[in-house]
């Protein structure tokens, strides 16, 4: 009888440890890329979230927005070590920004939670708002976006 109780207790402990590992949520570190713009050949009628894993794929969507000064160069991206999560908005004439609330890994998925901040005043020009996140390949997974 004692052996059966110990066996059941051991199995409960083993299963409880296993289920905790499966539901573990890990915060994913990232760097925001600066000084890039969405090329005007890119069209979308809704906010899109793209996982980009190569320089060629990145160059099809983005161009460099280099400026003068020491901080004028675009952020470098090493696609051999990193990949990019790009948030691209719809064309607008209002100042718009994506605010990243959370980037976490759960099982085999990377979950991106964000909000959109839009100022009410209209500009004389239009933009495609974007946010580019550089993420290490060690945090690879399917991207799931969650607009808050």
TrEMBL record:
Residues 1-21 form the signal peptide. The keyword Signal applies. Keywords: Signal. It comes from the Bacteria. PROSITE patterns: PROKAR_LIPOPROTEIN. This is Protease complex subunit PrcB family protein. The lineage of its organism: Bacteria, Pseudomonadati, Bacteroidota, Flavobacteriia, Flavobacteriales.
